[in-house]
Structure formats: structure tokens, C-alpha cells
């Protein structure tokens, strides 16, 4: 499957949807199996086992800077003819693009049900510009 199809599929799916990550990793695994023999372990792994930040860093950190640049240019993350970026920048680019993101439902469920004392007294969250302390609530 060509990378043009990958770009179309990834562009059509919402960026924070978990299916986006699964589809992109699956298509990237197929391309890695065919084009990059250094990534055979990544290509043959289960999608759920390689969509975390630690797993992606483990697979990509063993590669050279030129190989990472070739992979990033193949995925249209950098220009093919551009000068190679630093190794840590390329690694972060690859990990950020393919790591599983926290869903909105998980983020909401992680929040407290009732406000904490820090939230109540934080003027950035609960503005007090209209309250001067002189008026009563009744």
C-alpha cells in the first residue's frame, strides 16, 4: 500500500481519535516491513504493544540519524532533500506522531467530581473580577 493512501486515511480520520493512531501505525508497520529491514521487530509487533511512548522510543532509538531521517521523509514529516535534523528531534517527531493520545473521555474521567481547594481559589479558573467582598448573596 502506498504512502499516499496512508496520507488520505490519516487526513480523513480525526487527529485525536484512537482509530487514527491504530490505522497510521498499521500502515506504517506495513511500509516498515517492506522498506526498512532494521524495523522488523516493530513491523511484526502488535499495534497495541507499540503505540505507547516507551515502546516507540525503544524501537526508534536504536536507529541511526540518517535512517530516522529517511523514515521521517518517507512519512512526509520532513522534506526529503532537507538537511538532517538532530537525532533527538527526529526521535521526538516520530514518537509524537505515532503515540497513543489520551481520549477526551479518559481526560474527563480523570478529573475530580467536585472542585478542590486549589481550583476554588485559583483566579485564573474562577474569576473574581465582579466580586468585591461587600455584597451579600441574599
How would you summarize the topology of this molecule?
Elements lengths: L2 H10 L5 H18 L4 H4 L9 H8 L4 H10 L12 H12 L5 H7 L6 H5 L17
Helix pairs in contact: 1-2, 4-6, 5-6
How would you describe what is shown here?
With 138 residues, this protein is mainly alpha-helical. It has one domain. Helix content is 54%, strand content 0%. It has eight helices and no strands. It has helices at residues 3-12, 18-35, 40-43, 53-60, 65-74, 87-98, 104-110, 117-121. The longest helix is centred in the first third of the chain and has 18 residues, at 18-35. The protein is elongated, with a radius of gyration of 22 Å. The protein starts with a helix and ends in a 17-residue tail after the last helix. Mean pLDDT is 77; it is low at 1-16.
